[in-house]
Amino acid sequence: MSQTATASRLAQLTQLSCKIFNNVYNPTAVRTGNKILRRRLLGPSLTSYYPQRLFHFRDLKALYPTMGLVDLDEKERLEEINRRKRRGKGAPKKGQGKRASNKKR
Questions:
Q1: Could you give the 3-state DSSP secondary structure of residue 99?
Q2: How far is C-alpha 32 from the chain's CA centre?
Q3: What's the confidence (pLDDT) of residue 4?
Q4: Could you tell me if 18 and 25 are in contact, meaning their C-beta atoms sit under 8 angstroms apart?
Q5: Counts for the chain of helices (H) and strands (E), in that order
Q6: What is the per-residue pLDDT for 92?
Q7: Can you tell me the mean pLDDT for 15-20?
Q8: How do residues 51-82 score in pLDDT, each as one tens digit?
């Protein structure tokens, strides 16, 4: 009888200790997500890895619309797309790709 009394007292002591030290009381050792929830959040460190751009060309173009600024990279990209389309290497029209040609009607 004294063995069970001490076991229950130890359980009470553990529960009180968890309450005092702000731990989770888990006598059956069931898996909880506390280990993961206690970890530091990764979001701020991941977003601060790359420095933020000071400005984009489109922002500069929006600030000064009368200057007629031209984004050379975008212009080159559009010209490359047109060159590929002329050679038949461009992207297919919407709904005309590989998967659409394999469908049986």
A1: helix
A2: 23
A3: 67
A4: yes
A5: 6, 0
A6: 84
A7: 94
A8: 887 888 888 899 999 998 999 999 999 999 99
* Calculated CA dihedral for residues 85, 91, 93, 94, nearest 10 degrees: -160
Joined tokens for residue 61: 């173009």
Residue with tokens 């590989």: 98
- Are the C-beta atoms of 35 and 26 separated by less than 8 Å? no
Q: Where are the domains of the chain?
A: 2-47, 53-89
Rounded to whole angstroms, the Cα distance separating 11 from 27 reads: 8
Enter the tokens of residue 91: 């992207």
Distance CA 10, CA 7 (A): 5
Tokens describing residue 99: 């998967």
